[in-house]
Amino acid sequence: MTSIPIPPPGFFQFPGKAPDGSGQEYFVIAKDGIIGHFRDARNRAKQLEGILVPGLLMQPSAIWADLRSAGKRDWMVFTGLPSGKFLQDTTIEVPCPPGQVFAVYIQGRKATGGQFVVDSWEWLEADHERSGYPIGHTTRYGRRLWTQE
Amino acid sequence: MDSGVTQYFDYLKEGLASEGAFTPKPYYDGAGDTLFFYARDAQSYAKRLNPLLTLFLATDDNRLVGFKIKGVQRILRRMERLGMEKFVLEHHRPEGIRLTFFVEFALVAPPDDPALESFEGEMRQFGDVVVHSRELQWT
User: Which ipTM value was assigned to this complex?
Assistant: First the structure.
């Protein structure tokens, strides 16, 4: 993507790695989507995790497609190890939990400006033999689009 | 830093700074057809229980923090076949369905790991939580 697209109203937009690893693409997340829910519910843990999303999209360990989950064949997931995670507030950064990787799910349908849409995120158990890969990646996902290896 | 990232971080920081207690309430993600429920505000990781149900377990002690149920519209169609009036709460406004029904439908598939079976009972303690029909995009 050469020019910066206009984010749809009510969305935040930030850059990240193109799913094929070739360069940069833009990603959006709806203000009234899951992040709005976490804010409304005062779920601090999930909001703090949300801070990790832009960094992970920029520097994933691997990008996967064809999620083997009902209705998510055309989704993607970026997995990797953020530099750290936050405790209590945005000023205390601690190392990532050992044995886990962070995952950001991308919806199958793009936004009006061609941006990829962030759906949700979570920590997953790591594959002990492949750093930055989640456990069960061979069965959870159909294809690996890119890897930093 | 990219201005979009700055706006996003500012939004998160504003949310984190806001007063008020954590409220355990369900959230339906229409794009993913997934119902999320966090019962506690605690750091967690996801662990698949079966193809429809994923647990969120506490990072520090593996206690149940919440769960997500996939294939919600399919569950709703099963409810319709059985008679939706059996599931929709009477005299409840806004109209809703107890979380327990979604949990029980999702638990039809056996756990991938039998050791996770103990969490099935724990999930039932949240059975009376109401999922609003409007939020489920079902009418």
Answer: 0.94
On whether residue B6 sits in a domain, the answer given is no
3-state secondary structure of B1: coil
Rounded to 5°, angle at Cα A103 from A100 and A108: 160
Q: Which amino acid does the sequence have at B22?
A: F
Q: Is B11 part of a structural domain of the chain?
A: no
Quote the number of domains for chain B: 1
The separation between CA B51 and the C-alpha centre of its own chain, rounded to angstroms, equals: 15
Of A31, A47, A120, the CB nearest to B32: A120
Residue A47: enclosing H or E segment and its boundaries? helix A44-50
User: Does some domain include residue B92?
Assistant: yes
Residues of A in contact with B32 (CB under 8 A): 71-72, 75, 105, 107, 119-120
pLDDT for position B7 = 95
Which pTM was predicted?
A: 0.95
Q: What is the DSSP string of A16-34?
A: EE-TTSSSEEEEEEETTSH
Residue span of the structural domain in which B82 resides: 22-132
Pick A119's closest partner by Cβ from B7, B31, B44. Answer: B31
